[in-house]
């Protein structure tokens, strides 16, 4: 028996499913257009195809895709049915596509979860039609200034979406000062670091939220993890970090490949490196604990989390160990560079910079990235590519990297050939969004990546 929905909705779903099939088979991807087709026929289709799911929405500047994947895998490990937009298609039409792709006319959704990554500016379009069980916000950094503006603008866009869903539990990064004391009626729990990383208390000169959002006094810190995240307090008005429900209580080991930490009292190895991935793992831990999932499922999943789709994605290219890391703003880029700094042996690094709309058309942000920290590392080959490769080369030269090691290739075909002939077995590829997408497409065409989307 077909579920009770209107003829218009049925036509909308069928048209979208046909479009999904065509885009997957002919275009080998494309997750936004099928949703646009559905919405053109029935603008309310999301409220119908999402019925029955316990929905978790993940938003924020950095870490959305990885955190979404972590939460999805934990729920799956626990034996629950779950769907997700795993390629990061996080705009309104892409999310509609995800639900329609999983929609069955003759099957009622029961005891199932939908773990959905949402673009910050699109949250309000989703919560207009869905009342999620949980909304989590990872962090707020300057990102694509031509699109979002400053961090306070991004926060206001997120709050517009939260205000539409007052019964949703909020799981917020307590180390993010912008998310403190929001005066919302939602149940709110916070996660963050009780353990310090290197006893750092001095905020970076280019940090994004250095001043109290209430009285504008500069924040002081008991410790900083990176950028402006940490155990903050204001000496002007007394505003400080909220009490943490879920915390990193001890950092046991940091390596170029993983991190071992204590989340509350649970010792976990997170199979992706970097402090930012500890935050992602902590967020996933907090969300899934709120969903009532047991520690064993969380621990087993996080220590076996696969990196994919440009998020520390590991590839083998002619016996070269290549790791692709998506970088899109100063805060995330600096964390990626910190991961490189954990290496003690010689390696090569590739820097891919594009300026398409999805990257941010203004690339001046690369001057806020601390490339100078690479100066003393054993990097004996520096590959540079992408639309704005010469801008990147100038930035790296000013940072003090040896220009004699620079290998500039404007095309990904030539870049790949140079990587294949590299004298290094380990190569990091740091790429902005469309550079990562297009590089992966090229590698897929040559058989180095099996799954494009």
TrEMBL record:
Domain of life, source organism: Bacteria
One BP term from GO: cell wall organization
Keyword presence, Methyltransferase: no
Keywords associated with the record: ATP-binding, Cell shape, Cell wall biogenesis/degradation, Ligase, Metal-binding, Nucleotide-binding, Peptidoglycan synthesis, Zinc
Residue ranges occupied by any Mur ligase central domain in the UniProt entry: 58-232
Residues at the catalytic site: 362
Catalytic activity reported: beta-D-GlcNAc-(1->4)-Mur2Ac(oyl-L-Ala-gamma-D-O-P-Glu-L-Lys-D-Ala-D-Ala)-di-trans,octa-cis-undecaprenyl diphosphate + NH4(+) = beta-D-GlcNAc-(1->4)-Mur2Ac(oyl-L-Ala-D-isoglutaminyl-L-Lys-D-Ala-D-Ala)-di-trans,octa-cis-undecaprenyl diphosphate + phosphate + H(+); beta-D-GlcNAc-(1->4)-Mur2Ac(oyl-L-Ala-gamma-D-Glu-L-Lys-D-Ala-D-Ala)-di-trans,octa-cis-undecaprenyl diphosphate + L-glutamine + ATP + H2O = beta-D-GlcNAc-(1->4)-Mur2Ac(oyl-L-Ala-D-isoglutaminyl-L-Lys-D-Ala-D-Ala)-di-trans,octa-cis-undecaprenyl diphosphate + L-glutamate + ADP + phosphate + H(+); beta-D-GlcNAc-(1->4)-Mur2Ac(oyl-L-Ala-gamma-D-Glu-L-Lys-D-Ala-D-Ala)-di-trans,octa-cis-undecaprenyl diphosphate + ATP = beta-D-GlcNAc-(1->4)-Mur2Ac(oyl-L-Ala-gamma-D-O-P-Glu-L-Lys-D-Ala-D-Ala)-di-trans,octa-cis-undecaprenyl diphosphate + ADP
Pathway it works in: Cell wall biogenesis; peptidoglycan biosynthesis
GO function term, MF aspect, one: carbon-nitrogen ligase activity on lipid II
Pfam families assigned: Mur_ligase_M, MurT_C
EC number of the protein: 6.3.5.13
Database matches in InterPro entries: Folylpolyglutamate_synth_CS, Lipid_II_synth_MurT, Mur-like_cat_sf, Mur_ligase_cen, MurT_C
Keyword hit for Zinc: yes
Binding site for Zn(2+): 212, 215, 234, 237
Record-annotated Lipid II isoglutaminyl synthase (glutamine-hydrolyzing) subunit MurT C-terminal domain positions: 326-436
Family under the similarity heading: Belongs to the MurCDEF family. MurT subfamily.
Assembly mode: Forms a heterodimer with GatD.
Function of the protein: The lipid II isoglutaminyl synthase complex catalyzes the formation of alpha-D-isoglutamine in the cell wall lipid II stem peptide. The MurT subunit catalyzes the ATP-dependent amidation of D-glutamate residue of lipid II, converting it to an isoglutamine residue.
Protein name: Lipid II isoglutaminyl synthase (glutamine-hydrolyzing) subunit MurT
Organism expressing this protein natively: Clostridium sartagoforme AAU1
Upper taxonomic lineage: Bacteria, Bacillati, Bacillota, Clostridia, Eubacteriales
């Amino acid at each position: 028996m077909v579920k009770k929905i209107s003829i218009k909705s049925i036509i909308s779903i069928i048209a979208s499913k046909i479009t999904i099939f065509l885009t997957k088979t002919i275009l080998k991807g494309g997750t936004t257009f099928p949703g646009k087709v559905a919405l053109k026929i029935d603008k309310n289709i999301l409220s119908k195809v999402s019925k029955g799911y316990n929905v978790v929405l993940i938003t924020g500047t950095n870490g959305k895709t990885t955190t979404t994947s972590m939460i999805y895998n934990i729920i799956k490990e626990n034996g629950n049915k779950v769907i997700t937009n795993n390629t990061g298609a996080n705009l309104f039409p892409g999310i509609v596509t995800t639900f329609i792709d999983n929609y069955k006319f003759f099957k009622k959704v029961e005891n199932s979860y939908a773990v959905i990554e949402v673009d910050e500016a699109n949250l309000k379009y989703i919560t207009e039609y869905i009342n999620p069980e949980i909304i989590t916000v990872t962090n707020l950094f300057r990102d694509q200034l031509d699109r979002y503006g400053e961090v306070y603008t991004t926060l206001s866009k997120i709050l517009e979406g939260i205000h539409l869903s007052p019964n949703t539990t909020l799981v917020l990064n307590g180390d993010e000062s912008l998310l403190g004391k929001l005066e919302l009626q939602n149940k709110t729990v916070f996660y963050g670091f009780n353990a310090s990383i290197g006893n750092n208390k001095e905020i970076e000169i280019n940090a994004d939220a250095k001043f109290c959002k209430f009285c504008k006094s500069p924040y002081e810190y008991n410790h900083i993890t990176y950028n402006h995240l940490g155990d903050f307090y204001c000496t002007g008005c007394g505003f400080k970090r909220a009490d943490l429900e879920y915390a990193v209580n001890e950092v046991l080991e940091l390596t170029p490949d993983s991190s071992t930490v204590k989340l509350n009292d649970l010792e976990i190895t997170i199979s992706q490196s970097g402090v930012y991935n500890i935050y992602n793992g902590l967020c996933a831990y907090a969300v899934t604990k709120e969903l009532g999932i047991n520690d064993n499922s969380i621990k087993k999943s996080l220590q076996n989390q696969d990196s994919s789709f440009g998020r520390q994605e590991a590839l083998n290219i002619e016996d070269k160990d290549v790791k692709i890391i998506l970088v899109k703003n100063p805060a995330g880029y600096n964390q990626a560079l910190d991961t490189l700094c954990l290496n003690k042996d010689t390696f090569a690094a590739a820097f891919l910079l594009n300026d398409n709309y999805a990257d941010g058309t203004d690339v001046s942000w690369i001057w806020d990235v601390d490339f100078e920290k690479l100066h003393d590392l054993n990097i004996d080959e520096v590959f540079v590519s992408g639309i704005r490769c010469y801008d990147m080369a100038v930035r790296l030269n000013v940072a003090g990297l040896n220009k004699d090691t620079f290998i500039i290739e404007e095309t990904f075909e030539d870049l790949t050939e140079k990587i294949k002939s590299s004298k290094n077995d380990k190569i990091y590829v740091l790429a902005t969004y469309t550079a990562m997408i297009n590089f992966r497409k090229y590698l897929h065409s040559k058989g180095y990546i099996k799954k494009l989307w």
